[in-house]
Amino acid sequence: MAQPEGTFVILGASGDLTYRLLMPAIYRLYAAGHWSWQVVGYAPDAWDSPRFRDHVKEGLMAFVPEFEDSVWNRFQELVVFQSGELDKGGCEGLAEIVGDKPAVFYLALPPTLFGQAAQSLGQANLAQPVTERRLVVEKPFGHDEASAAMLRNTLHQYWQESQIYRIDHFLGKETAQNLLVFRLTNRFLASIWDREHIRSVQITYAETLGLEGRWRYYEQAGALRDMLQNHLMQLFTLVAMDPPAVWAADTLHNHKTEVLRAVRPIPPDAVDQYASRGQYRQGIVGTAAVPAYRDEPHVAPDSRIETFAALKLWVDNWRWHGVPFYLRSGKRLSQDYAEVAIELKEVPRGLFGAGLANWLVFRMKPDERIDMVVWAKEPGLTLATRRRILSTPYRREDEVEYSAYEQLLLAVLQGDRTPFPRYDEVEEAWRIVDPVLTAWQTGDPEGYAAGSEGPTGQARIMEPHMAWRRIGESDETP
Ligand code: BG6
């Protein structure tokens, strides 16, 4: 076998993220001919390489339907394990394995250990040379603006911003990537992508899932931190940013940051006009009866953590002044349904009826497709209109589907920073949500029945004569 080009070190290699997501993604990339780096699992467990490989193989057999022994037999030669602590000494052991090859260090660790790991790697001189060493971190990047800045400062002691790859897995999703491609490639959209033509934007990410045993994290986080500050804010940014002049990471990040900076600060005394929160009560999801959030194991019986959050953003720039952007996400809702929906203004004078708005909808779940809601004459003897959907699935059935992790891991290997938020984006996103987080430290979220469309209070943040789209808004019905 040819010498691997570089070394991909996973710190926290005995954990769940490695088992369920990272190794399956790496294996699939390898099987498709895109991966050639050595993989070093690093963890304090007293394992050796054969033990680690058994563990990895078990995960692959569980999570990769097309797993093949023949591929595994070749792939496993790339996989080794090193036992060690997250201290300077342990990382010096790693330095011997890495040698002078390019290396990526993936922190598959609890966030409390990010700082220590980044420092120990730096002390062992693993952050040098700058162009050949990369550090990958997963959210959460802090729990508010101040803690995000502290984490940034710690990482920056040994790592430059250009070496840090922050995973927001939504940026590896096809629909997120397509948002920009579709927007910036189709001439008919270029001239309408502004306040003159767009009336509102709604981004919905609805899940039927509940806590899934993640109470330790979720009780500290809630929906606003878990989904809106990062994933939905990134989708918003891709819709609202100005087109970059060139396809280059820093140019892209500059434009993303600029639009985030243009988001009007949410006044601390008017948070209720901008944000709505809810917490699920017991109910029926699909056909299953599920308990209330507060009755979930380990959740505080008086927890005020929100399992649903909605936010209205105003962008005070020339392109978007006066156009509301609505973002919402929740657990235990009626359906697994996600979309980015752009509402166009009506024509100036509707000869054939009122209230006939066009929508351009990028659907993410249950399937990825692009829908355009248009109005056409109803066949028959009158000029009555009816709603039609021009709809195209995003992918053909015979096309390979790459997971968000596959997309992002490959980008890390290639040193492509475009799909990774730069620190100033993260900072601005915290700046936007911080007043809401502060307001939500008191009071209680509104209850909503599990299996419903969320709290009724979400309607409160809507501008007059606007309404949330239904979750799972079906195709041809008005
Ligand atoms: C994660 C959140 O980042 O994204 C989860 O922590 C959420 O709470 C998940 O369920 C949703 O993403 P996906 O890709 O699994 O739909």
Note down, in words, how this protein is organized.
- The structure is a single chain.
- This protein has helices at residues 16-31, 49-63, 69-75, 88-98, 114-123, 145-156, 174-185, 187-190, 215-221, 223-240, 249-261, 271-274, 404-414, 423-439; strands at 7-11, 38-43, 79-83, 103-107, 133-138, 164-167, 198-206, 275-281, 283-285, 288-290, 308-314, 324-330, 337-344, 359-365, 369-377, 385-393, 446-449.
- With 478 residues, the chain is of the alpha/beta class.
- The chain has 2 domains: 7-138, Rossmann fold (3-Layer(aba) Sandwich); 171-475, Dihydrodipicolinate Reductase, domain 2 (2-Layer Sandwich), CATH 3.30.360.10.
- The strands form 3 sheets. It has a 9-stranded mixed β-sheet. Strands 3-2-1-4-5-6 form a 6-stranded parallel β-sheet, sandwiched between helices.
- Strand 5, helix 6 (145-156) and strand 6 (164-167) form a beta-alpha-beta unit.
- It is globular, with a radius of gyration of 24 Å.
- The termini are far apart.
- 40% of the residues are buried.
- 6-O-phosphono-beta-D-glucopyranose is lined by residues 169, 207, 209, 226.
How does the major sheet shape up? 9 strands, mixed
Output the strand order for the largest sheet.
16-15-14-13-7-12-11-8-17
**Bound ligands, each once:** 6-O-phosphono-beta-D-glucopyranose
CATH topology of the largest domain: Dihydrodipicolinate Reductase, domain 2
CATH homologous superfamily caption of the largest domain: Dihydrodipicolinate Reductase, domain 2
Kindly report how far apart the N and C termini lie: 60 Å
